[in-house]
Design brief:
about 30% helix
Length: about 300
């Protein structure tokens, strides 16, 4: 891909002007190259990476079985460049045997790049998920009325943790990227058991009269030790994997109380910030997370199935 480094350099320079929290580099995976030209003849490019998520894999719970992800290299031409590369991608897909069901096209792009947003919308993409970040500041921890208490979950809480995690997954499947799959409960149980037995990643439960009504599953990611694995600046980050509040307990401050406890621990651990993924079409999370201080950094745009790319 001739000139690819120049495109990367100009793209990263533009990203820095859009959002100071974007990482300094734009790392590319192995994939098939795409080339396109702007109306004036200037080249733009991209890489397409294909991931297959077999039945029974954890990744299949929030992704299609076959994911085709585009990594655009647009230099400083976000709208025309994205339009050109997406057109080349459509031709690339048409020349291959792409599954017409349970497949997706994915582009992850800075949320503040509204010029590229227009091109993505024009080609049929929907903003199904956002990576949102929050600075390392504690919340004001307030006591809830009644008998609601927050505590760390232990191994004996496995059933309660799984039940709340499945409830969140089922709701997200209606409004976001999660996918209902056979055996989802078993996969959630395996993940929860590993999390609770390791004791490394914090899990909290909120209880009312001794009955669990909300869950916060969190973890840690050190991007300084895992370069290229995350779209974040370098440092120790806290990760909010799942927040689930029982349907009948919503609206009473339980979720805010859980996250206040989590944010306090994130600060004590020296995290440079916390991040999570939420679904903009979700009428609950799209309101809740901004109120907790999170704001979009990257937006994951999707077309399902992949053959629906315009």
């Amino acid at each position: 891909m001739g000139g690819a480094q120049d495109l990367v350099d100009r793209q990263c320079a533009r990203f820095r002007g859009l959002d100071p929290q974007l990482p300094d580099d734009y790392l590319l995976p192995k994939g098939d190259p795409l080339m396109a030209r702007l109306p004036g003849g200037e080249p733009v490019a991209g890489l397409v990476a294909h991931t297959h998520n077999p039945p029974g894999s954890a990744q299949s719970l929030w992704q299609a079985s076959d994911v085709f992800e585009l990594f655009p290299l647009l230099g400083d031409h976000p709208r025309a460049g994205m339009d050109g590369v997406l057109g080349a991608w459509r031709e690339w897909l048409a020349a291959r045997s792409i599954p017409a069901e349970d497949s997706s096209c994915v582009v992850t792009w800075p949320s503040r790049d509204v010029q590229a947003t227009r091109a993505l919308l024009d080609h049929g993409f929907a903003p199904l998920s956002c990576m949102a970040i929050r600075p390392p500041t504690p919340d004001t921890v307030t006591e809830l009325p009644g008998t609601v208490k927050v505590r760390r979950a232990g191994r004996a809480d496995l059933d309660a943790v799984v039940e709340l995690a499945i409830a969140e997954h089922d709701y997200a499947a209606l409004v976001g990227t999660s996918v209902p799959r056979p055996g989802a409960g078993d996969l959630k149980r395996i993940a929860a058991r590993q999390r609770l037995h390791s004791g490394t990643d914090p899990v909290w439960l909120a209880e009312q009269d001794g009955t669990p009504i909300a869950l916060a599953e969190c973890g840690w990611v050190d991007t300084a030790r895992q370069p290229g694995g995350h779209r974040l600046r370098r440092g120790l980050w806290a990760y909010v994997n799942c927040l689930s509040v029982h349907e009948q307990a919503r609206g009473g401050g339980v979720g805010q109380r859980l996250m206040a406890v989590a944010h306090e621990e994130f600060v004590r651990a020296g995290a440079v910030g916390s991040f999570l993924y939420y679904n903009p079409p979700n009428p609950l999370s799209s309101v809740f997370w901004p109120r907790q201080g999170y704001r979009p950094l990257w937006t994951m745009w999707e077309v399902r199935p992949a053959t629906a790319l315009r």
